[in-house]
Amino acid sequence: MLVQLSGRNFGCFRDEFCLSMLAADIEKGSHRGIIEAEIEDDPEPLRLLRIAALYGPNASGKSTIIRAAKVLGAVIRESVHYSSDEVIQSYNPFALSDARTAPSFLAVKAVVAQQVYDYEVEFNSTEFVYEKLVRWEQEKQVVLFERRTGLPLEGEWMQDEQFRLLFREFRKNALVLSLADSLAPGVAKGIASGLKSVLRTHDLAPDAMFAPRRMRFTNVADRVAEDEGFRGWLTQQLIAADVGIGDVHVSEHKAKDLPRDVLLQLFLKQGPEGVLAQKSKKLTLLHHGIDGLQPLPPDKESLGTQRLIRVSPLIYDLTHGTRMKTSFIDEFDASLHPALLERLVRHFNERPIDRNVGGQLIMAVHETGLIDGEASEAALRRDQVYFTQKDRNGAARLYALSDFKERQNINMRRRYLQGRYGALPALGDFGD
User: Fold this and answer.
1) What span, in angstroms and rounded, lies between the C-alpha atoms of 143 and 221?
2) What is the distance between the alpha carbons of residues 2 and 6, in angstroms, rounded to a whole number?
3) What is the pLDDT of residues 62-89, one digit of tens each?
4) Which of 119, 131, 136, 291 has the fewest Cβ atoms within 10 Å of its own Cβ atom?
5) Mean pLDDT, the chain, as a whole number?
6) Helix crossing, 338-349 with 303-320: angle to 10°?
7) What is the DSSP secondary structure assignment for residue 43, as one 8-state letter?
8) pLDDT at 382 over 90
9) b/e code 298-308 from CB counts within 10 Å (16+ = b)
10) DSSP β-ladder status, 292-296 and 279-289
């Protein structure tokens, strides 16, 4: 589970930003919006937030926070495969000052297999100049490894002979954590996989809706066919959403219905026999009509209904999955009616605590209905709301609503729109 994501000199953030998922003690005796992570040798679980919502004007840094998670997860996953002279494409320093030539810094703190880890990387376009992995034991930090350009590798992992032999030298554009996960799994113990699971990003932008028709809902069709629990849950959600759908159906089609690039990959991997044996699944939605339930393909649905269907596997995994994970989504509220969005957020945020089920959602939104009403009754808690805002030099900053000393009976939306928290566009005259 994600505890904290931070960074510096990345995108529009010149100075340090920190997104914390630690729950504040603002609702006495309430477990609303809380998920508990068990920590080894600690009798008290770590109380983490289920949701964090990023508010702010366009181009104020919301998407950059999500991109930071994407970049950090990507370099952990992919740097092991870089060639020795490959450029680190994700290097993206603040471009409006002399920081444009300085390294970018990204860090994540997370619970992996009931242990708390801090992982930090600093990099430019050609090398990772700094990298450190720490395990927390109560209040004590145990440095598992630390690398810095020009200095030998240090830390607890160096006591392992296999690790020491493998990492006498390593590519400057490869992460030690990624290499260890691949070459010394007995030492790395799945930490890389655990960190990647809290840095998952999902592209639900409207433009993604215009992908080739046959590819848009393949993952949903597969889940409906393979998981009866998901099928029942999805049907219930679509009925509750009042979009006219009464049931869902999946049918199988032969390989000729698959996209050409998928067929080519199958041919290269499995030969013609593998292609002939391949079948694709097609999702059909059954609508209430004069003559009963009538079938319609998903691409004939409204953009909002399509988005609701596409996000359904993610929401189901975060609310019913047995693997703890964290997901980042930009523009989560796009094309969704405010009442439907609020119901989805409450459905996720107000679930009973189950330490074996659940996940976290970090989303960039504009819909202020999620913070409407008294703070104790709104869909989001005060500590689940973050703001982004740029200064006159183009540098963004991230700050939490809980930083403001407010009472629980205030209306967060009203105060936000009144400008008390900042993070509003300073609109000028658009002219004639």
Assistant:
1) 45
2) 11
3) 999 999 999 999 999 999 999 988 999 9
4) 291
5) 88
6) 10
7) S
8) yes
9) beebeebbbbb
10) antiparallel
